[in-house]
TrEMBL record:
One of its GO terms (molecular function) is transaminase activity. The keyword Transferase applies. Keywords: Aminotransferase, Pyridoxal phosphate, Transferase. This is Aminotransferase class V-fold PLP-dependent enzyme. InterPro entries: Aminotrans_V_dom (IPR000192), PyrdxlP-dep_Trfase (IPR015424), PyrdxlP-dep_Trfase_major (IPR015421), PyrdxlP-dep_Trfase_small (IPR015422). The keyword Cell inner membrane does not apply. Residues 54-353 form the Aminotransferase class V domain. It comes from Pricia antarctica.
Length: 361
């Protein structure tokens, strides 16, 4: 996938290892965005009305198809955090929630802020076992977690979630896919997940201001949603009481440029091949794990797991981060270390170069 670098101008200036913070803008996507705004400039409301009835439904279908979900159970939201908060407004207070310790704040905080009864699973190499133990010992009715942990990149075993749902069919599994979606050939309807939400600005490369939520059919009876608006009823003055579940997440107008950008990027990823992207990222993950393990820079919880994402947090201080920055490596300081995150526009040569910088520190 080395040839994909040419579509991302940032890669000509930097060694970009920071997709977990923000995915890159594709030059072809920028052209589409410019054309979109030009159409708005010369078309005004005519363009926006057409886009609302043609582009937005197309985006919803594109998202559903890309992730193997049902279009009628797909909601477009500006970001994951807003969508999750809308969902939780419809969740009863009788539930006991299982969260992962130190998970992304926008996953844990909405539950904690509502003062629900909460249990926590320890985030270590035995994450799946820790989750199962809690579910067996406590009266857990909702499991909410990131599919990939934002600080250290630990990725939950999707087969484990499928088995968990089979063994505990009444358990509601809510997942944040923001650090996951766009990295594998994932099929939502075949998974054990009941609700999957994600923002589109990281691995999906859709830019900011867009995201989505996917729902299984059975989840509709578990929530009493409170959000409502004219858009949810397809601008039908008599449609207030006939709004389908997913449309409660779209009470107002959606930005056609932002959501059009998401659809454009999903089409681009499809053209590259979801399977090809997944295979390339597996190669990068294995390569990075070998290099960082050899340098004894990874925490035991990561080193001990058989498979991992392409997000790695290594031991490193401000001085090392400054050295990486001075050598045009774009990464992030997270927790007590330095986080690298590799996407399909990265290569094994990038990892070799980073490893060499680390060895010379």
């Amino acid at each position: 996938m080395e040839n994909t670098k040419k579509h991302f101008p940032v890669c000509s200036q930097y060694m970009y290892a920071n997709t977990a913070s923000a995915g890159l803008l594709n030059d072809k996507l920028m052209e589409w965005r410019q054309e979109h705004d030009l159409d708005y400039l010369i078309g005004g409301s005519n363009m926006k009305t057409k886009a609302r009835f043609e582009l937005i439904p197309k985006v919803r279908k594109t998202v559903a198809k890309f992730f193997g979900a049902k279009t009628e159970n797909t909601a477009l939201v500006p970001n994951f955090s807003l969508g999750l908060n809308m969902l939780l407004e419809g969740l009863g207070t009788e539930h006991t929630i299982l969260l992962v310790q130190n998970d992304y704040p926008s996953v844990n905080w909405p539950f904690e802020y509502r003062k629900l009864k909460i249990e926590y699973a320890v985030l270590d190499e035995n994450l799946e076992g820790n989750i199962l133990k809690k579910i067996k010992s406590e009266k857990i009715s909702v499991l909410a977690l990131s599919l990939v942990q934002w600080v250290n990149g630990i990725r939950i075993d999707l087969d484990f979630l499928k088995t968990l749902k089979r063994d505990f069919p009444e358990l509601i599994i809510i997942a944040d896919g923001t650090q996951f979606c766009g990295t594998t050939d994932f099929k939502f309807e075949e998974s054990g997940i009941d609700v999957l939400g994600a923002s589109g600005y990281k691995w999906l490369l859709g830019g900011y201001g867009n995201g989505f939520f996917l729902f299984k059919d059975g989840i509709k009876s578990k929530f009493t949603l409170q959000t409502m608006g004219f858009n949810a009823a397809d601008i039908n003055a008599k449609g207030r009481d006939d709004v389908r579940f997913a449309m409660h997440f779209e009470p107002g107008h959606l930005d056609t440029m932002n959501f059009g950008s998401l659809a454009f990027s999903l089409d681009y990823l499809t053209s590259l091949g979801k399977g090809a992207i997944e295979k390339h990222l597996e190669t990068l993950s294995e390569k990075a794990k070998r290099e960082f393990t050899a340098l004894e820079l990874l925490e035991d919880a990561v080193s001990a797991r058989t498979s991992h994402s392409t997000i790695f947090n290594i031991k490193g201080d401000d001085k090392l981060f400054q050295k990486l920055t001075e050598n045009n490596v774009v990464c992030s300081q997270r927790g007590s270390g330095i986080r690298f995150s590799f996407h399909f526009y990265n290569t094994e040569k990038d990892i070799d170069a980073i490893a060499q910088l680390l060895k010379s520190s």
